[in-house]
Design a protein that fits this description.
Length: 347
């Protein structure tokens, strides 16, 4: 049954197609095929020769597909997961929405605000669920911190912090000058909004450099950045990111509020500390799919439930747009060498 009315109410298992069988898409497909109840992987689409076939063969489920028109027309596909490169996202959200499919789109949902508006509008008109891949909202520590804010324990946020340190090994040829803001720090900007509920950013000040790959600096490639964000409720936040941390993948957050402080994430692979002749050793997490397995699974579970029930997803197109606006303001702040107000990027 298709999701033309935005709900597949009577369907027990939601049929999902993957668009984009790369690194992230393959993990989502595996989640749909093996880690999630209430959904099944119906098809995989990717224009790269053999990519869809290889993934379908490995998972032993779904059918490969090279023509997206086939996906949009298929009655056994209720929803799609979009995990293609960022610049293709908005058009794919629009096309999937028009076909009446629920849409889970990896971040960033769009790279310009008009494209974000187009995507939001298409999903709203079609009455389909649109969820964006801000997986940290589904990670246990972050969810617990938000619960402490929601029940009043933490009180009013004053200082917030969110950081992302990738483990390195990135291909500079795939990185654009704005990538660190639009694809990496966008998680931190969303996290800061998540941990400061109801408030929106008003001004952004950013500084960035090419410290990991100095040879690429003349191309404007930025791999290390710090961003200060001022919110409308007076809270002040810092987001930082680097594309290379020698010890692995490290994501952390902190809220200092009137009633106390919550900290999230510590980069340890487990609770084990080994003490030996060389001193004390702690094993660190090496990648996002290791640290966030549960969060990636929980976000798709929430999406599938929204599609099944015809209810609003927990992370919306509007959330994607708000984080994108902060990212664009940060990029502009680096370019202009001054603080940038959010209203400036809205023009
Ligand atoms: N939530 C997270 O923490 C997280 C982590 C990694 C990546 N991502 C996001 O996931 C997306 C994909 O990243 P990736 O690392 O998997 O990239 P990737 O390059 O490994 O994979 C992208 C795939 O999309 C395919 N593709 C390109 N255009 C397509 C189209 N029009 N239709 C169908 N397939 C198409 C490519 O052939 C490739 O196989 C990006 O938006 C990225 O930001 C999110």
């Amino acid at each position: 049954m298709s999701a033309a009315a935005g709900s597949v109410g009577s369907v027990d298992s939601v049929g999902v197609a993957l668009v984009g069988a790369g690194r992230m898409g393959a993990f989502h497909a595996e989640t749909l095929a093996r880690r999630l109840r209430g959904a099944h992987l119906v098809a995989v689409a990717d224009p790269a020769p053999g990519a869809a076939e290889r993934l379908v063969d490995r998972l032993g489920t779904g059918r490969p597909c090279t023509d997206l028109a086939e996906l949009w027309a298929a009655p056994d596909i209720d929803a799609v997961v979009i995990a293609t490169p960022a610049r293709t996202h908005a058009d794919l959200v629009v096309a999937a929405s028009r076909a009446g499919k629920g849409v889970f789109c990896e971040k960033p949902m769009a790279v310009t605000l008009p494209d974000a508006d187009r995507a939001i509008d298409a999903a709203r008109r079609a009455g389909v669920a649109l969820q964006v891949g801000f997986n940290r909202r589904f990670a246990a520590d972050w969810r617990a911190a938000r619960a402490l804010l929601d029940d009043g324990t933490l009180g009013v946020p004053r200082l917030l912090r969110s950081l992302t340190r990738d483990p390195g090994g990135f291909d500079p040829a795939r990185v654009l000058p704005g990538t660190i803001f639009l694809e990496t720090l966008i998680h931190d900007f969303d996290t800061l909004r998540f941990l400061n509920p109801g408030a929106e950013a008003v001004e952004v000040s950013a500084t960035a450099g090419a410290l990991v790959e100095p040879d690429w600096a003349d191309r404007g490639l930025l791999d290390t950045a710090v961003v200060t964000v001022r919110f409308g409720n007076g809270a002040i936040a810092v987001a930082e990111a680097t594309f290379e941390a020698a010890y692995g993948y490290d994501v952390r957050g902190e809220v200092l509020a009137s009633g106390g402080m919550a900290t999230m994430g510590d980069g340890r692979r487990s609770g084990l500390t080994f003490s030996g002749a060389a001193g004390r050793l702690v094993e660190t997490v090496r990648g996002d799919q290791e640290l966030f397995t549960d969060a990636y699974t929980a976000e798709l579970a929430a999406f599938v439930e929204a599609v099944r029930a015809g209810s609003a997803p927990p992370v919306t197109g509007e959330d994607a747009r708000a984080a994108l606006a902060i990212a664009l303001a940060a990029a502009e702040s680096v370019r202009a060498g001054r603080p940038v107000r959010l209203e400036e990027v809205e023009k």
